[in-house]
Write a structure and sequence with these properties.
Elements lengths: L4 H31 L2 H25 L4 H9 L1 H23 L3 H31 L8
Helix pairs in contact: 1-2, 1-4, 4-5
């Protein structure tokens, strides 16, 4: 993987991609609840499998060589997934408010979206820090 800003930018793009895959699945679930479309259900399953594969690729790169560290990452996946979902939904709210001319509120929601991304990266970096320092999951930060 690249170092410095290039690595950070790549991680951000990877997280955005995962977040959008989460969001696609959410929208398909909403659609299938109303339309009960069997093809959409199959598509939802496919999107979830693509998301899982994408997460595995990213986690394997970030946490290569450490089964214990990968275990930490897997345990925190649910938290990370919800952070990324909140990031996407906040961005969507910001866009809608901006379209309605609610600039101040749109900025607040856009900042929340960015905050969720930053927090997700901090969580990932904390897991990486555990690997680098050899700390175990019984210690608190």
């Amino acid at each position: 993987m690249q170092s410095g800003k290039g690595e950070q930018a790549l991680l951000e793009e990877q997280l955005w991609a995962i977040a959008h895959l989460i969001n696609i699945a959410e929208h398909l679930v909403e659609y299938t609840a109303v339309k009960q479309d069997e093809e959409a259900v199959k598509l939802t399953t496919t999107i979830r499998e693509i998301r899982k594969e994408t997460v595995n690729k990213v986690f394997n790169i970030l946490f290569s060589g450490s089964k214990e560290l990968r275990g930490y990452a897997d345990n925190l996946w649910c938290t990370l997934k919800h952070m990324l979902s909140a990031m996407i939904h906040s961005e969507e709210v910001a866009e809608k408010l901006a379209e309605e001319g609610e600039k101040t509120e749109a900025i607040w929601w856009a900042r929340l979206s960015r905050t969720m991304l930053v927090l997700a990266i901090q969580l990932i970096n904390r897991i990486k820090q555990i690997q680098e320092t050899g700390a175990n999951n019984d210690k608190t930060s």
